[in-house]
Structure formats: structure tokens, C-alpha cells
Amino acid sequence: MSKYDEASENYVPLRSDPSSIASGTEINDGDYLSDFEDFNIEEPEYVEKGAKDGYILELSEGMWTKASSKAVRKIIYLFMRWCGYWVLNLKKWIEQYRTRQEDVEKRQTKVENDFKNVISNATTDSEVITARNSDYFGNFALLDERLENIEQLIVGFVPQGIKISIKRTMNALPSIYIDTWEYGIGRVPLGEEPAGKFGGTPPRIVEHRIISWANDELVIQVALDYENFQFNHRPTNDEYLLFDGVRSLMVHISGGEPVGEAVDKEQVLVSKNKATPTHNSLVQRIAQLEERVEGN
């Protein structure tokens, strides 16, 4: 038995407490506390099945079962201390979350303002976003990917950027085709070519465009990929052979007559055109380039 189970000398008994009524003693209502009415309400399910704190269960059990007023007051005191501890901690946590929420709202406000600025200045930013999509080659995740795709096509296939000027007497528009291959005979020592490349790779037709054929000069335009080719010799009067490392390029011409010796380096010159952009819009410029690629 704990000391709180001992009756206080100032303890006022309940009327229903048999031990408090001496035999033959006259009962005065003012000498007793009124009986409590029965309290039969059961715990709701969310309390019964919810989280339980062992300490507060012990206090509540004691408050229900202890008859000593001193014990009950002690229990109430401890209960209030327990409530005060968690209320103060809850207040501290609420303040922490409130401060954090204010910081989040400030950052969110900044992000929203930045986004509004993007929308209000959409004449430049939206143009870049729109430029990622191509009517000819589909949509790209990044503008850089679309530009890289265009550059690869231009460099390798689109006949623009490089001029091949050939001194040749022309009296009519010639018929021309150009082919290219790698590891032809004599480009690398025998046995040093990659596996399966002996004798050279199969020829591939090169896209080209005739620019002019006047004044004893034939000017042909090819892609940027052929910038470093240099003339070597004429195998026949209608063929011009150029080399770039292990790569070979042959220009076949039907019509006209050659000028100069077959090995004259000056009769064929390869030069690069200077770009002359004329479009004000990035989207227009890219679309124009892709249209030219698609058309070739």
C-alpha cells in the first residue's frame, strides 16, 4: 500500500462508505460528500484502439480507483504536469513548422514570380521552347539536340558550304555525278586497312549542286564534310580524283574538255563559302535549314 492509499486526517468520507459510519451515529448530510452517480459510458473505439501512453494510463487508472482525496489530487497534479509538458512541446513544434512553412511560401512566391516573368517576356523564351519541335524530323527534348541533328545532316549530306572549282572548257550544261569511298588502293599500306576494307569500301554517291559553268570554270557545291579534300590527278579527261587521308572523292563530268595537265594542282580548287544569315528568327532559320535538308 502506498502512502496515498492512507486516509488523510482531514479526509471527508463518502456517504456510501460503510466504514465512515460509526454504529449508532446520527448522520448529518453536511458531514459527508454527496455520492457520485454511476458513470457507465464506454471508451469510444478511436480511444480504445488508438495509441496509448503507459504513464497516462496509470494516472487515469489511479484517478478512477483511488479513494484517498490526497492520492487523487496527486494524480491530478501529475496529469496536469504531463499535459503541460506535451502542450509546451507541441507549441514549440508548431512554431518550428510555422517558420518552415513561411520559408517555403517565400521560396514558392519567388518561383511563381520568376515564372510570371518568363511568361511576360515570352517573346524570347517561348521561341527557344518552340524551336525544339520540327515538322520534318519530329520533336527533340532539347534545342541543342535538334541543332546537332541539323548540323550532322548539313555537314554530311546537304550540298552547301564547300565549292569545288574545276578549270574546264564548257559549251553546254554538263552531266555530273560524284562518288566517295574509303581505304582505296594505295591510301594505306597493304595489310594495314581495317578488316573487310581491302580494296576500299563501296562507293557512295555524294549530293551536289552545279553553281555555274561559264568562263571555262565549272563550280560545284558539296557538303561541308568535304572541306579538306585536295585534288591529286585526272585518271581520265572526264574524271577528277581528290583525297583526304584515307578518303577518296571522284568527280565524273560528261561534256566539255579539261584545261591543263592531268596533275596540275591549280586546275581544281576546294574552298569554303562564308555564311550569310538573313533570318531574324531562330525558328525561321532552323525551319529553313531543315526544309533545304528535306528537299535534298
Rg from Cα: 49 Å
Mean pLDDT: 78
Overall structural class, as computed from helix and strand content, comes to alpha+beta
Count of helix runs:
6
Main sheet attributes: strand count, strand direction, barrel closure? 5 strands, antiparallel
The share of residues in extended strands comes to 15-25%
Question: How would you describe this protein?
Answer:
- By secondary structure, the chain is of the alpha+beta class.
- The protein is 35% helix and 19% strand.
- It is built from six helices and twelve strands.
- It has helices spanning 45-48, 54-65, 69-120, 122-130, 143-156, 282-295; strands at 133-134, 138-139, 162-169, 175-182, 204-205, 209-212, 217-222, 230-233, 239-244, 247-254, 257-258, 268-272.
- The strands form three sheets. Strands 3, 6, 7, 11 and 12 form a five-stranded antiparallel sheet that branches.
- Helix 5 (143-156) packs parallel to helix 6.
- The longest helix has 52 residues, at 69-120.
- The mean pLDDT is 78.
In short:
Helix content is 35%, strand content 19%. The chain is an alpha+beta fold.
Layout of secondary structure:
Blueprint lengths: L44 H4 L5 H12 L3 H52 L1 H9 L2 E2 L3 E2 L3 H14 L5 E8 L5 E8 L21 E2 L3 E4 L4 E6 L7 E4 L5 E6 L2 E8 L2 E2 L9 E5 L9 H14 L1
Antiparallel strand pairs: 1-2, 3-7, 3-11, 3-12, 4-5, 4-10, 6-7, 8-9, 9-10
Helix pairs in contact: 2-3, 3-4, 5-6
